[in-house]
Structure formats: structure tokens, C-alpha cells
Amino acid sequence: MIKKWLEIFIVSLRLGLTSFGGPVAHLGYFREEYVERRKWLTEKQYADLVGLCQFLPGPASSQVGIGIGMSRGGTVGGIISFIGFTIPSVLILMAAAVGFQQQGLIELGIIDGLKITAVAIVAHALLGMGRNLAPDNQRASIAVLAFILVLLIPAVWIQVAVIAASGLIGWWLYRQEKLPSAESLPVKLSMKFSAVCLTAFFGLLALLPVLKAAFDSLHLQLADSFYRAGALVFGGGHVVLPLLEREVVPAGLISESEFLAGYGAAQAVPGPLFTFASYLGMVIDGTAGAVTATIAIFLPAFLLLLGVLPIWLLIQQKPGMRAAAAGINAGVVGILAAALYQPVFTSAVTSPADLAFAALLFMMLVYWKRPAWLAVIIGIVGGIIFYGG
């Protein structure tokens, strides 16, 4: 098992060092590494996990990484996977808080090249998922409708609503059909453990504000603010940033200029955007503040996933749930297609040359079957050559 845990850490650390582009791009990198290359999950297992994590509040890509680690190496594997994927951006943003500046990367053109790489990687993931998860007219229609709704209604709640509606449509369309048995993740968690995690999730949400009011402690204030942000936000890292601003700037914990500087640094580093909490905690109270803020913002994601996953694995074996899952998986394809356009494509491709570069990287991934890490290296080199200035 130790060998498996070491493998999980090495693979997740490499992803944590190279996964630029935000939550949707992370899902593309994960699929390339864990489904296509290593075969740790099937396409359906991966899509089921993505659908569940999109439905839960918190950092969806981090939760997917935790779930994959758990499927490979148990609960410890999930923790190791999280640490490997998260620690690079935590350390970089802590360094940013004490003077490390990311502007040099922007001037070199590296960020521009990495944004275009993200376009190719997400498009590659979308192509494979669409082929496997929306293979017929009905599921293709669900995917297209999900794409349209998410694209035209830019609200935080729309992704959850689309997943729920896709599940209902899938149940209605396929409830009478004999579908293949569900491909459950090889995760063994008891219902008792699930109940403990869910109780802890809601208990901390209720208890931390009481403790903050009762005791004059900066760390309790940080724990309450960051735990609440991690527990209640849907839509990933981009949504949590303004929520954190309302928690720390009006309270006088950090200045507006310091917050904006950290916001820019968070956009320029690999890994989950939720590690912006590490920067804020470091500015507010040094290393201790960074540790408190980081644990507090990610803890809800752990507790929710550990609490809900056993229930999900049980109910997905029911025929009606398999029918709903067929619709949910198609809906996830549509959601990822919308995210490919906005923000991935619109923020990266601003000229014919950008589109040409993205097309070359896409061809390399799809037809030449080259790994994603090589696309990242080419993206960095291309960014320096074509966009540096």
C-alpha cells in the first residue's frame, strides 16, 4: 500500500505543478492522466465522480482529485492526492504574500501560453467524454441543452440545477431500458463513517460562529470565515474569491490592494484557486494564519465528499439511479462544453494566431497521442517565443 500511496503522491504532485487554467482545465488534466494514461478509472466512473462533485459545494476539481486518490489508496490515498495537488500552489502563494511577484511570468508570456494549452486540453477531454457519455440522440440533446442553459444563464446555481434536471430527464428517458450495471468506484466507506462526516460538516458550520463570538481569537475568526466560504460556495474558485473579499477586507484583516495583488497571483499559479486562502492567511498572521485558512477552506470539501460518497455509491446501483446517472453524465458534458467556451476559450484565444496555436496542441493530444505534460511544456515555450515582451 505504501508503494501505491507514493505513486499517488508523485502523480498528483506533478499535476499540481502543471495544471494551469482553473477548475475546468484541471478536470481535463485529470482525465488525461487518470483515465486515458493510467486507467485508474473508467470513463463512466470518472464522469460519475465529476457529476457528484459538481453537485456539491466547494472546489469541485479538488474533490474529484480526492475521490480518485481514495479509489486508488483508500482515505489515506485521498488525503495524499489532495496534498500533492494542492501543496505547490499553497507554497507559491505563501511566498507571494511575503514578496514573491508573479508579474514576471506575465511579461515573459508564460501565462498566455498556458491559457492556450488549457484550451487544447479541455477540448481533448470534452471530445472523449462526449463520445462515451453522449453516444445517442437523447443524451446528445441533454448535453446540448445543458450547454445552452449554462452559457446563457451565468448564475452560480445554474450548474446544480442543470445536473438535477439532467438526472430527471435521464430517469424519464431510460427508466424502462436495461442499462449496464453501474461501475462503482472501488471506495469502501461505512454508512456510520459517512454520518460522522456529515455531522461534523454541519456541526462546524453552526459551532464556529458561536466560538468566534465567545472567544476573542484571530484564528477562530479565520476558521469561521474560511470554513463558511468553503462550505457554502458553488461554482469553484472563481466564485469564492469575491466571497472571501467580503469576509476579510471590510473586517480590516487585509487591505484592498493586498487582496487584489493576491488575486492576480492566484490566477497565475497551477492547482486549485481555493489556495488563495493560503495567501490571505499568510498576509493576516504569517504561517500560522496560512495553515488555519488553508485547512478551514478545504475541510468542508473533505467532510462533504466522505459523507456523501458512500450514499452515492449505494444508490447508484438502483436501476432508476442508473437511468438518472446516464442523464447526469450527459449534462456534465454540456457543462464542460460551456466552460470550455467561457472562461477558458474567451480568456485565451483573442487572435487567429492564438487559435492556430491551440489547434496545433489539440492535434498533438488527439492524433499524435502525446501526454498533457508535453503540451504544457510546449505551451510555456510557445508563450515565451510568441507572447513574451
UniProtKB/TrEMBL annotation:
It is a multi-pass membrane protein. It is found in: Cell membrane. This is ChrA protein. GO terms for cellular component: plasma membrane. The chain crosses the membrane at residues 79-100, 106-128, 140-173, 193-214, 264-284, 291-315, 321-341, 372-388. The keyword Membrane applies. GO terms for molecular function: chromate transmembrane transporter activity. Its main location: membrane. Pfam families: Chromate_transp (PF02417). Belongs to the chromate ion transporter (CHR) (TC 2.A.51) family. Keywords: Cell membrane, Membrane, Transmembrane, Transmembrane helix. The keyword ATP-binding does not apply. It comes from the Bacteria. InterPro entries: Chr_Tranpt_l_chain, Chromate_transpt. It comes from Alkalicoccus saliphilus.
